[in-house]
Amino acid sequence: MKRFVSLLAFGALSGGLAWSQPTTINAQTTTKATTTTKKTTSKKKTAKHHYLLVMGHGAGDPGARGNGTSEAVYLRNHLMPHLAKYAKKIKKSNVTIYNPSHNIVRDTLVFHKGSYKIKKSTTVIMFHLDASTSAYAHSGHVIIHQRKPTARDVRLRKVIKQYVGLNPAYNGYSFRTNLRNCNVLRKRGIDYSLIETGFITNKADFKHLNKNLDKIAKGYVEAIANEKIK
Ligand SMILES: [Zn+2]
After folding, report:
1. Distance between Cα 121 and ligand 1 center (Å)
2. Measuring CA to CA, which residue among 201, 225, 21 is closest to residue 217?
3. Apex CA 226: angle with CA 102 and CA 199, to 5°?
4. Residue 79 near residue 71, CB atoms below 8 Å
5. How many Å apart are CA 191 and CA 38, to the nearest integer?
6. Beta-strand (E) ranges in the chain?
7. Under 8 Å between Cβ of 68 and 25
8. How far is the centre of ligand 1, averaged over its atoms, from the C-alpha of 53 (Å)?
9. Other C-beta atoms within 10 Å of 226: how many?
10. What is the pLDDT of residues 167-178, one digit of tens each?
């Protein structure tokens, strides 16, 4: 394009109609030649892996309550915008968020949609906050879908440990098979993790959450997608 423009400018100077036409043809031939020699070894593109982030509860189910808020509200109004911001920066995979006006458990167990309709190749990450009648119960853990944590679970645990602290009862991981929505995923062979970032009922956890919300979200998205965000 550059060459074509400079030739035209020269043409305007010398006022030559006679050669402005051949120049155009020349430029076209050159472009054609390069395109045909190029595209013979184009590889078939493989689809990017899909990670689905799910905010717990919602659609009328507040989840746990504490520190003047509820799980459903805190996850959607505070954590989710930060997660969405970093999800957009991931290049090697697709990170999306489950419709926040829905409650995946209800979609699954009441309407036979939700976890029943998720593609088998999708990885599901569910976000929750823990609760206890004891104000002292504190810190977070990852609920895992196999006896051994996956590499992703190890990365997620690190984020919780760094910004909130690990629940001493679990030392970071809990393998559970009594969560009905999760069991639908398990039976369908879908990879998932459920994150309890901390106790909504604990003052110190709530403080750590609010203070580190952006770093936590960035850490989580990086851990999930296994990609550094610049
Ligand atoms: Zn919950």
Report:
1. 25
2. 225
3. 50
4. no
5. 40
6. 49-55, 65-66, 69-70, 93-97, 123-130, 141-144, 173-175, 192-199
7. no
8. 14
9. 14
10. 998 889 999 999
Structure tokens at 105: 């458990």
Q: Tell the residue number behind the tokens 């088998």, with chain if given.
A: 120
What is the 201 CA–ligand 1 centroid distance (Å)? Answer: 12
**Strand 141-144 versus strand 192-199 pairing type:** antiparallel
What tokens does 115 get? 């976890």
In this predicted model, what pLDDT tens digit does every residue of 177-225 receive, in sequence order?
999 999 999 999 999 999 999 999 999 999 999 999 999 999 999 999 9
Ligand 1 centroid vs 132 CA: distance in angstroms?
11
d(CA 203, CA 133): 13
pTM of the model: 0.80
